[in-house]
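To close the section, here is one more complete example, presented without commentary so you can practise reading it yourself. The ligand is flavin-adenine dinucleotide.
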Amino acid sequence: MNNILNENFSRNCTGCGMCASICPSKAIKMEIDSEGFYSPQVDINLCNNCGICIKTCYKFDTEISLKKCKPIECFSAVNNDSRELENCSSGGVSIELMRECLNRGYYVVGVCYDYKNNIAVTKIAKSYNELEGFKGSKYFQSYTSKSFDEIVNDKSEQKYAFFGTPCQIYAFKRLSELRKNTSKYIFVDIFCHGCPSLNLWKKYLSYQRSKFGISEFEEIKFRSKTYNWHEFAFEFFADNKKYLSEKYNNPFYEIFFGMNAMNKACYDCVTRSSIEYTDIRIGDFWGSRFNKDIKGVSAVVINSEQGKELFYSVLKNFKVERVSFSEIIKAQSYGKLHICNEKKRERTLRLLSGDLNIKQIQKQYRKADSVKVIAKRILKNMAKHLPSKVYIRVKGLLYRD
Ligand SMILES: Cc1cc2nc3c(=O)[nH]c(=O)nc-3n(C[C@H](O)[C@H](O)[C@H](O)COP(=O)(O)OP(=O)(O)OC[C@H]3O[C@@H](n4cnc5c(N)ncnc54)[C@H](O)[C@@H]3O)c2cc1C
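Output:
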């Protein structure tokens, strides 16, 4: 079978959605599977076996490998505008690059939150206003089909600045190589820990709704910096009121970072551990250098002359320091495999698709925790009573590799 159902693949599906958008006979649709991940569904009656889906698919790429990449330059960056810093996840690099790309005539592709369906959606922005929704990370896969369809079918000279996960960027890079139009794109991807199941988010959201007695939130921030940048927390907004998520034992982040509810492809993702396909990679600047910072610092890795020229043109908007690539990746999952505990993953995903609420799931989920994990959690919770700067140091020691 000359389509993505072919069993001769080397890796798992990232759910990027390129196969569905590139299929000329519209034989593939992206749908959420029972585990809460986007998965391509092929209608074999419509498929004409052209094989184009395989040519852009990460699963079938036999050339892809963990090549040693040497970036051109690396920086730490902190946005000079305190409001931008407040509203972003890290140091606020993304929005400045996006605005500059719009100024240069690119359409900007990014991820916003769809409040009607409570999912993350990849969208195309053509104005400054539309960029606002791209601010802040939404920590699960985005639904890409509508915008990918539009870009794939755009035969004009329109240029696109694409911001997304490394697997999404990889897909567009492959497409642009295939169509020999790489100059149409500029790529900015993110350091990526992986994407948890959408079921985790849905469970957590419904728990927060009932806890605060709110039927629909009007705005959600996934990375509130109210506690501090190092402490992952949510802010929910409704009826002109702000609701802050728990400081202790946040079930969403506990299960997300616990690594047992990830998409299968995320455990050994090659694109996460390579900068080969992107012009710029951005992320949080974790590690000891900014341990005391509580507002957020970005890590910026420049991998092409095009990326360098773009970042330099917005440099004035940041407080920057030149740093080494090795310092940045030391505190990232870049180049590291996540161990997949199949049994625990399967159990967690089963719990997340069942009837229990997220607090009950968290209780069940913890049953398989080792003594070390339990001890770390207790110490971390105790340390949260200390001043932020002391807490950050203790957390750093507890979770050091
Ligand atoms: C699933 C996921 C895992 C991540 N893992 C890490 C990690 O391990 N280490 C690390 O340093 N950083 C990680 N990040 C990146 C980090 O959270 C910030 O997104 C990044 O540092 C940019 O922050 P900023 O302050 O420049 O701008 P922000 O305003 O926070 O920009 C957010 C950017 O991320 C994009 N985005 C938001 N949600 C998604 C999504 N679901 N899929 C694709 N793109 C999205 C937006 O389009 C925008 O470009 C992750 C992000 C996501 C979405």
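Once you have examined the tokens, check your reading against these statements. The chain has three domains: 73-195+262-330, 198-260+338-368, 369-401. The mean pLDDT is 94.
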